[in-house]
Design brief:
Number of strands: 0
Number of helices: 5
Shape: globular
Oligomer: single chain
Radius of gyration: 14 Å
Structural class: mainly alpha
Length: 142
């Protein structure tokens, strides 16, 4: 059965590479919307904007868990955080890290948000970045 990359799917990716690939397909579907149109677009969720960080959250199951179904949220959250780190590194072109885990997470999100907010950014560029980060995930040891 093929994996469905839609916000409505109850299948939730649980590895950094699969989260990044899911996010790539999601951003290709919803596009990138900036500024006052951040929550526009098909396939967006009520709480997540149509842009790269929102696509990663959707891929990691934010707002998509099915009632009565069990998910390993600790595993999914770890994989999501690793996906954020890999994407930030791919976008920056170098490791993006801090000694404190909370500071590192904030730094990853900042790198992704700054890249995403650049005028003219396209969904195709974001999908390529997600897939480049997914390729790194295939070779990363966590």
């Amino acid at each position: 059965m093929p994996t469905r990359h839609t916000p409505e799917s109850i299948v939730i990716a649980d590895t950094p590479a699969s989260i990044l690939e899911w996010a790539a397909r999601h951003i290709e579907h919803v596009g990138i919307h900036q500024g006052s149109h951040l929550f526009d677009g098909p396939g967006r969720t009520a709480t997540l904007p149509c842009w790269p960080r929102g696509a990663l959250q959707v891929a990691a199951g934010h707002g998509r868990g099915a009632a009565g179904r069990t998910y390993d949220w600790d595993r999914i959250d770890r994989a999501r955080d690793q996906a954020f780190a890999l994407l930030a590194e791919a976008l920056a072109g170098h490791p993006v890290d801090a000694a404190d885990p909370a500071a590192a997470k904030a730094l990853h999100r900042d790198v992704i948000d700054r890249w995403s907010a650049e005028p003219g950014r396209t969904a195709a560029e974001a999908a390529r970045a997600f897939r480049a980060a997914a390729a790194r995930a295939e070779h990363a040891l966590f």
